[in-house]
Amino acid sequence: MIVSGLLASVGINFALCTIFFVLYSVLRKQPGNYKVYAPRLLAEGKAQRPSRFKLDRLLPTAGWLKSAWQPSEEHLLSYSGLDAVVFIRIILFSLKIFTVAGFIGIFILIPVNCSGNQLQDIDFENITNNSLELFSISNVKNGSDSLWIHLGAVYVLTIIACYLLYKEYKYISSKRIDYFCASELQPHQFTILVSNIPVPRGSTVGISVENFFTENHPATYLSKVVVHRKSKIWTLTTAAKDLYSMIINFRKVPTQPQFIRDGLLERENLINHREKKSDDPEANVRIDRSREEIRAAFVSFKSRYGAAIALHMLQANNPTQWRTEQAPEPQDVYWPFFSTTFMGRWISKLTVIGSCALVTILFLIPVFIVQGLTNLAQLEAYFPALKGILTMKGMDLRGFGFQIRSNLCLANMSIVSQVITGYLPNLILQLSLKIVPPIMKVISSAQGYISISEIERSACHKVVWFTVWNVFFANVLSASAFSLLFIFLEVKDIPSKLAVSVPAQASFFIAYVVTLGWTSTSSELFRVIPFIGSLLSKPFSKNSDDDVNVPSFPYHQDIPKILFFGLLGFTYFFLAPLIIPFLLGYFSLAYIIYRNQLLNVYAPKYESGGKFWPIVHDTTIFSLVLMQFIAFGIFTLKKLPYATTLTLPLPVLTLLFNEYCRKRFLPIFTAYSTETLLKKDREDQHHPELPHFLEQIHAAYQDPALVPANYSANQASHVEPLISTRKLEAKQRFNAA
Amino acid sequence: MIVSGLLASVGINFALCTIFFVLYSVLRKQPGNYKVYAPRLLAEGKAQRPSRFKLDRLLPTAGWLKSAWQPSEEHLLSYSGLDAVVFIRIILFSLKIFTVAGFIGIFILIPVNCSGNQLQDIDFENITNNSLELFSISNVKNGSDSLWIHLGAVYVLTIIACYLLYKEYKYISSKRIDYFCASELQPHQFTILVSNIPVPRGSTVGISVENFFTENHPATYLSKVVVHRKSKIWTLTTAAKDLYSMIINFRKVPTQPQFIRDGLLERENLINHREKKSDDPEANVRIDRSREEIRAAFVSFKSRYGAAIALHMLQANNPTQWRTEQAPEPQDVYWPFFSTTFMGRWISKLTVIGSCALVTILFLIPVFIVQGLTNLAQLEAYFPALKGILTMKGMDLRGFGFQIRSNLCLANMSIVSQVITGYLPNLILQLSLKIVPPIMKVISSAQGYISISEIERSACHKVVWFTVWNVFFANVLSASAFSLLFIFLEVKDIPSKLAVSVPAQASFFIAYVVTLGWTSTSSELFRVIPFIGSLLSKPFSKNSDDDVNVPSFPYHQDIPKILFFGLLGFTYFFLAPLIIPFLLGYFSLAYIIYRNQLLNVYAPKYESGGKFWPIVHDTTIFSLVLMQFIAFGIFTLKKLPYATTLTLPLPVLTLLFNEYCRKRFLPIFTAYSTETLLKKDREDQHHPELPHFLEQIHAAYQDPALVPANYSANQASHVEPLISTRKLEAKQRFNAA
């Protein structure tokens, strides 16, 4: 890519971002769009509709920027929970590290690169005509001493990154402990989930649990709730709920033909009949006892310490029985999937690994298409018919936005080819990347996790590695996308292969940052899909502020995105420092936009207490090591043997640092210490609500399939996704108590 | 190797074994050798010297075989502990699996191999003239259908091995729990070791521990013993003890020149003076308080369950502080090395990894020499002078005991070349292998383990992998011993490389089994070195039954040996089944000999409760997977693509089986369950000795450096290695209590 090409791409995307910003600042002020742009405020009754029309409403203003910028971290913590704070700190961490990297890159490395002339001298008169490669390490002479500066830069960045990582890990772990210490009485702190309960003949799960815990934890055992299978009852109730919400929607619209309404009313009667049946507690108990129990139970204890002891100690002589895990928050429980047995969960885990591999392989197809589009010459060879369209006016079209190795003197480019080579590949990538997080979430939910937070965390992991593998490696080693695996089987060639192909893709990834980073983040602000959805559904639904659907933040989708841009920053920092300013632009945008969205749009669905941070830490370490390996390859390639040797201690030290952090901080994210638990227990010992709370604790983990359904027209507005319903119920029961 | 060569080698070694057996059966009956052949019985007073001479004493008898065979497992368990039982069961397990393998190999695979004629037809008239390769898979025609039989054999053996492994793991874990349930009151069950204790300014370790545990474990905390540094006191006391034992030895021998005795007496006075000083408890306390405390302490609890809770729960918000681990048995504590800090232990662990790598590389030198000797032709090329010696009578000498690819019609072989090619290489290997376990133990002891049992377990691990790497892989891929690492960097070529080189080394490893297996195990019976040592020291020491040194069993040396023979059995089972009968011979020998030694010679130094078994399990799984990989390579090489594909599920299933076992059994080896602990605690609640026991518990973990030394002539017989002293002390204190 030449500089003017880059400028064009930046221009297009900058314009798009501006349009999104302007549109957002106007549309958000229209009361009809409150449901899209401020659902959380609306649900909490904070968004008051203006009493009368003002001209101000039609003008783009920047007031929202200020209100997104102002709130302190404490405010965000109390308003959106620790997970949101962690998310914002990921962006802040990236901003910090890449500000340093940017200084080094722009003021030290780029001048050094430009002064080299391995490729050719820079044309200072027509600066926009220079290839981007002239600003990269490729332009430094082989064996030149100025490569030592690059080595120094790698060292400096590694040290600063490790220092910041350590500080951040420490900060977030202390926040996690503080958060726990400041928390209210919460049922999940007193509860564990016990699975694979052995049931002797002639006994039931309930009796077995009761006996075991009164025997082994006599002082602390409180109560139990046996879990019920995702059964016919579950299916029935869910179907009924779905149908019911459909009916409500239809009822609201009076223009429906009479016959449809008649048919629906009939079904409604049927449901009402069923409801009456399920309202009968005796009937429930009968079904419950007969065959629906599964061998898992939520067991509650009188103190947090008691629950922790039962959680961390091996309970039975057969470690596959009486398996314990921390109970999720009541609204966080993922009821539909409850694999009973130890083996069942294990097998589903294995199946999931298989599915992940399958998705990864299937995804190579769009990557292949993208790579095909960036190599137009190749495409032309396969489809000669394209030649006419693509080479209008007889120009050489290879490489707008992508590798161009020779022939830098392009003058005019046809719009068709610009679109095809410059924008289309990224668009295809972007669209296919959009569908990956939901797919991974579905896969993770089949893995046997019992809470939505765990499912999202697992999906986050999967999306991170998927992106690194399928976007980074598949694009970098593009020539042989399908033979990727075989490349990795020849371990010793990896650094040199990466050293050749990573710098070659610098322009592609700069375009990627600008397109996928800038524009897609701005479209997050604009909320394209919900906005279109609300436009389409407007004629069919009554415009009520009550039936607003507050979404939860898709951490498993946005954390991997930020981490991937971080990976790009680390790997390209010393190869092509020109990428850093664009990354900084992205992170600044992300900072302000995500803050705005967290404050206005999303409501937390669960609180994992910052458990996303270890993923961030691990991925950053991976990025650092990858950078060091590429440096190793580059210095080999550039014939600087001493520098090559001197890069070797870097990955070793980085991995040792990682190992230390794992020992120092990771345990905090899996368990609270005796110290903290006892302190908290002692504080709450004389809490006036404690006795009532402990009495009610078993109600929190009632299977929703067996909670009597209660539908009536005036409650219609609460037809929400199940989880939100559960959350509200739980909140009502506990926060009010 | 041709059959006659094999028979010669077997003959030599069989003769050696017989000699050892005969010598042993005579020598063991001589009262002067009781110290060598029955030190344990002697120490326990069971070996009564015969009142008068009988002729029977000079005749070889086989009575000892019967007495080694007879005792039941229960007897062995109560006499030598669970570790000894586990050791014997390793041999039994190998016997079982290789009996099956032998049946399949001899009655199915060898006939199939012989009926092939890939190499040449078997000469049935002169059966001893056939090459051993004719009995191996190399003789089966490429693409022949009879290779399916080999695939079937691999499947059958894998299934049986997994079944037996599962049964064995289950049996040993239940034995471990039973052993714990049947155990006496033991101090280490009630104690944990806490390290990296944070000490506030102006406080001491003791006060800090006291405060922390009375705060966090008020109901169960009992007492503490702060650990003291390996300090000047330690060095002084050890030196004094060494000197003292020297003096005692000299004193016993009245023939020493007067001036030496005078000098020694002078030193003795000096020591006595020191002893008086260290006898003064006040002085001890003063030194102790001033600067010798380190930030670790043995903390005892009132119940086993209380100790387990403190052990398994995260204690502090900083996971690197208040680190807990199970206390070893008092006599098992490794005092000399007590790395204070978390970082200190971690760094020493890293250093150890480096040292292991160094030892492994250094050891390639003898392997190289061995390989040089087996390739005489090559040696001759380098040193033409050898030619005359080696080719006496103008014969082709390549390959007695080793690869011979052509020229099978050897007639006579000179003795020189037989010794050089047939016996010397194995002897060099054997001698160098002898020194590896002690080296690995020294390395492990620098790793920061706090007990001898952990050190030996870690050394066992190291020796296993060292043997696999340096004996198996270095010999198999002999051509490029130094480039071993690079071979493993090209992952995808490994199976085919192994498929070529493993079968080629079959004869070498048959010779290895016969030499290193048979003969060295018989020499274990004969105890060559202690025997020679006792012969040499006889003139200098008074022959007293009291100062007998009962050795402990060197698990870290003998377990890897057995496991390595198992690995050979698995890998060669379908390649060259001829190795199996020799292996069975080895295991039978080992069974009877080790039983005999465990009953007569070795006394248990510690009881790890069967913790060696997981190492055995993992190594066997590794052997199975290695066998399957070689099968994969072989079927590729033999051009049977369907069979190649069908071997792929095998390693996957084997590893899944391993994963299941890790989940099912491994936790039992790291912690006892709540169930068991509470049961044991409740049983002992009304134990009459419990109050006294708990009162005395802190005495068990007194630093020996600070226990007042007490030397006098009449106690001289107790100058034993420190550990044994400690054990006796501990025993006196507790078993008697």
Task: Describe the protein.
Two copies of one chain form a homodimer. The first copy, chain A, is globular, with a radius of gyration of 29 Å. Chain A has a four-stranded antiparallel beta sheet, with helices on both faces. The first copy, chain A, is built from 29 helices and four strands. In chain A, 64% of the residues lie in helices and 4% in strands. Chain A is mainly alpha-helical and 737 residues long. The longest helix of chain A is centred in the N-terminal third of the chain and has 43 residues. The C terminus of chain A is likely disordered. Chains A, B: It is a multi-pass membrane protein. Chains A, B: Pfam families: PHM7_cyt, RSN1_7TM, RSN1_TM. Chains A, B: InterPro entries: Csc1-like, CSC1/OSCA1-like_7TM, CSC1/OSCA1-like_cyt, CSC1/OSCA1-like_N. Chains A, B: Keywords: Calcium, Ion channel, Ion transport, Membrane, Transmembrane, Transmembrane helix, Transport.
